[in-house]
Specification:
The protein contains nine helices and no strands. By secondary structure, it is mainly alpha-helical. Helix 1 packs antiparallel against helix 4. The chain starts with a helix and ends with a helix.
């Protein structure tokens, strides 16, 4: 195999692993707008007096069915992506904190926490789309809360980890399968933006039922738009791991072909 051909195959593997993560926001965000728009078209009487949340929109089976199928596909991609992300975190911590074993153990425990919270959030996302107001209101609400808490917690923990990795003294070369240092700096900032989006959403959630000197419809409309923006920020944050996964894919290919090259 030529060096150029091997490099090309490495790029192909990197793309194969990373493109699905980029595709998540490209599909899920438009689907949220589609669900809301479709509900407006199908239920003009409802939207005369209240703006629909995503939960309300997918309670229509014609909207909720395709939306739930899309979420199942997204969940599969997320769970598969967690494998290289976990190892990327672990190796980044090992190389950046090579001389601090106690801190390495503490940060690795937080990686497990972040992964667990992400799985929890993804499970909640599946539950709240498989069960809607139309077939099980209580399970839908439980899934919604689990999704929000799990996803927000995972990103907050990830942001903390990325901040520690980005600020650590660079005393050893980064492992080829570790998270990219510059992307850790990006995610550190992005986690702060997501936290702000989530906080604003929680404020709107708390005040939407309170009588204020603003029309209730306006408050509810802003709340439903912020819901989409907050969920979109969750999804985009996950997509920020795509460059790391691409690099890990290229390194994986290089590792696979290096013994062959050494044997020739």
């Amino acid at each position: 195999m030529s060096r150029r051909g091997g490099a090309g195959e490495g790029v192909l593997l990197g793309l194969l692993l990373s493109v699905p993560v980029v595709a998540i926001p490209l599909f899920q965000i438009p689907m949220m707008f589609w669900a809301r728009w479709s509900f407006y078209q199908r239920h003009p009487d409802y939207v005369q007096h209240s703006a629909p949340t995503i939960s309300r929109a997918i309670s229509d089976p014609a909207i909720g069915g395709p939306f739930a199928m899309m979420i199942l596909a997204v969940t599969v991609v997320i769970l598969l992506a967690l494998v290289p992300i976990f190892h990327g975190y672990r190796l980044a911590i090992e190389t950046r904190f090579a001389q601090e074993p106690a801190l390495r153990r503490s940060l690795t425990a937080r990686v497990w926490l972040a992964i667990g919270l992400q799985v929890m959030g993804s499970a909640g996302m599946v539950v709240c789309t498989q069960y809607t107001f139309a077939n099980n209101h209580d399970l839908h609400m439980l899934g919604s809360y689990v999704f929000f808490v799990g996803q927000a917690g995972a990103i907050a923990t990830s942001g903390f980890l990325c901040a520690r990795i980005a600020s650590a003294a660079h005393i050893a070369p980064d492992a080829p399968f570790a998270l990219l240092p510059h992307m850790s700096r990006v995610r550190k900032r992005a986690a702060q933006v997501v936290a702000g989006m989530a906080a604003l959403y929680m404020v709107l959630f708390a005040i939407k039922g309170i009588e204020l000197p603003v029309p209730e419809y306006t408050i509810y409309y802003v709340y439903t738009v912020q819901e989409i923006l907050t969920i979109s920020s969750f999804i985009i944050y996950l997509a920020l791991f795509a460059p790391d996964i691409f690099a890990i894919g290229r390194s994986l290919h290089a590792l696979r072909v290096s013994p062959q090259a050494a044997g020739r």
